[in-house]
Amino acid sequence: MLKRQVVLECIAALLILLFLYASVSKFLDFKRFIDEMNNQPLPNSWTHFLVWGIPFLEIAISAALLFEYTRLLAFYASIVLMTLFTIYAIVILAHFFPYIPCSCGGVIRKLTWPQHLVLNLFYVALSVLGLILQRSQNLKSIFITKNKHSFV
Amino acid sequence: MKKIKWTILTFVILFSIGAAFATRPQHYQTLYWNNGSQYLAAGVMGLNYVCESSASICTYSYSGGVYTPYMTGASYTPIALTTEKAKPKPTEKKGN
After folding, report:
1. B91 CB contacts (<8 Å, ≥6 apart)?
2. By CA distance, what is A105's nearest residue in B?
3. Could you state, in order of their start, the residue ranges of all structural domains in chain A?
4. Helix count and strand count (H, E) for chain A
């Protein structure tokens, strides 16, 4: 029980580290982030939505990961977001778009697209593991609470 | 357990924000690109040009008479050479 709790806290901490670092970096150099978003092979009309939506979502997930009762939802959101990033990296690497944009807009600017893909896959796996552990913990808590009530 | 948890999470939050500040790039300025012989104003990223993935340098910043690589790991490509569909040209203003 304690071991699982420690693993869960570590997973949450790693995800918070990624999402908070990524979102704060974007806001600290917002002009560059807009440029980098325009540089992506996506319609420029999406830029306004994406430059506000992505960092906001990252901060929201980080905040939800802090608390026990919102953590399950945060893991689901994290899986969805990281899977979308992973699919985008795969699409880029598969030469689906007319050109390959620089990967300079990522969390770690020095990473290449294949490295980004590996990092994303690692975080998808981490989120899935977190979700499984959190679900089993929640079920156990419900079971314990029910048993307590049945003895009263 | 809760005390340890919140200590670690507080550290993680502070570390993330601190790291973001520490790795913050220089303040935004006019960017240039090198056409092989001279430096020219780059224009607006995503509108006039894109930085395509390569081992080159896409744009430079200029300060104190020195051009410093700004966007690395990419090459400068004017929009017209990429795709009209993905990156439409800015529409011209219509007269009155």
Report:
1. none
2. B71
3. 2-151
4. 5, 0
Q: Residue A22 corresponds to which tokens in the numbers above?
A: 């990524």
Tokens of B37: 């012989």
Question: Is A102 an interface residue toward B (CB < 8 Å)?
Answer: yes
Show residues of chain B in contact with A88, CB under 8 Å.
none
- Going by the DSSP 8-state scheme, the letter that residue B82 receives in this structure is S
Task: Kindly determine whether residue B12 and residue A17, on different chains, have CB atoms separated by under 8 Å.
Answer: yes
In-domain check, residue B52: yes
- Each residue's pLDDT tens digit, B46-80: 778 888 888 888 889 888 888 888 888 788 888 76
Contact in structure between B19 and A20 (CB atoms under 8 Å): no
Q: Between residues 7 and 66 of chain A, which touch chain B (CB distance below 8 Å)? A: 9, 12-13, 16-17, 20-21, 24-25, 28-29, 31-32, 35-44, 47, 62, 66
- What's the pLDDT at A134? 93
Structural domain range at position B55: 27-81
Total domains in chain B come to 1
DSSP strands (E only) in A2-151: none
Residue A70 touches partner B, C-beta closer than 8 Å? no
